[in-house]
Amino acid sequence: MKASAWWLCCGLSLLVLAGCSDEASEPQSFAGLGASLDTGAQAKDFAQPRPGDRIHLPADLGPHPGHRIEWWYLTANLTTAEGEPVGLQWTQFRQALEPRSPSDVPPPPEDWPLQSVWMAHAALSTGEQHFFHERVARGDIGHASAHAQPFEVWLDDWQLRETNEGAWRLQVQGNDWAYDVSLEPRRPAVRHGEDGFSAKSASGEGSLYFSYVDLAIEGTVTIEGVRHQVSGSGWFDREWSSQFLRSDQTGWDWMALQLDSGGRIMAFRLRETGQAYTAGTWIGPNGEAQSLKSRDFSLDVLDQRETPRGPVPTNWRLIIPDHDVDIEVTTWDGNFWNEGLYPYWEGPVRVTGTHTGKGYLELTGYDERQR
């Protein structure tokens, strides 16, 4: 789940109103950025996710023009042929500036329509380096889009495309780094929350959210001209909504974990004034998923790391009593700030305790430069 997408999509709206310049001014704060959003169309004009809404595949791999915000999101823990660990992240966001029915015919590109804006993030992490790149494009003029069948999501030459039935290919080129990998889901999609409706507060705001929690991945990464063969496993999220986070929600902690025992865990904590809203999903080795409410698990910070943008909680304890889970989740050594329009922390983690494994951790709202 990419809760940073809510904040990033707010920034996208401001960016496109400024002319879609690649040199965007940094927003001043989470709450300030969300509160200053004014794109004409309001949230009430868009389709609203609600409990009881159903996810339909493969159709929901494609875009949802009636909703305000959505994203496609991949993380992966890979190993080179030499045995070195590599982390990979790719995300593409769509922000609608006005609602549109899926049956509507888009205006012709020559009319220079301004109905949506897209942003893509890509990162590559090793034991010594963290690379990040960001791209922005207007929608509906041929620079970025998505389709369900055949499945494809792209922004210029960054692309995730279906190659064979059930297999995908991701190609990304950054500055002095790149990756070209194939992905194949080894399990059916998992629907989070109430059969796909994932609440984001006690008052009921939420999104539609599903994941492929076990992707077989192989291909190449290129770092400063040196190409490496890589293989490993990944996690793919798909999520859409029309509701930005409230101004009293100051940040987000999210993790996706792949346990060596075959279990999978998604857990998040939305930090609210005076409290936190937590939820998650347990997926057993047999693929059976259980929605986790706050009473079902605990998620606590054990330690933090000093970084150039302020302290970041990089060591966590996660307990799920019903599944005999008592684990520590620890970020790799290093600095994993993605320094784009809105900086956030995203990097690989290792899992120890009653279970071992690997995964990814995303943290927003810790950047002291934007407070």
TrEMBL record:
Spell out the Pfam families in the cross-references: CrtC, Lipocalin_9
Gene3D superfamilies on file? AttH-like domain
Extract the InterPro entries matched here.
AttH-like_dom_sf (IPR023374), AttH_dom (IPR010791)
Occurrences of domain AttH (ranges): 69-242
- Fetch the PANTHER family from UniProt: BLL1000 PROTEIN, HYDROLASE
Give the residue spans that cross the bilayer: none
Keywords annotated in UniProt:
Signal
How far does the signal peptide extend, from start to end residue?
A: 1-18
Q: Which domain of life is it from?
A: Bacteria
Q: Which organism is it from?
A: Marinobacter nanhaiticus D15-8W
Asked if the keyword Signal belongs to this entry, the reply reads: yes
Protein name in the entry = Carotenoid 1,2-hydratase
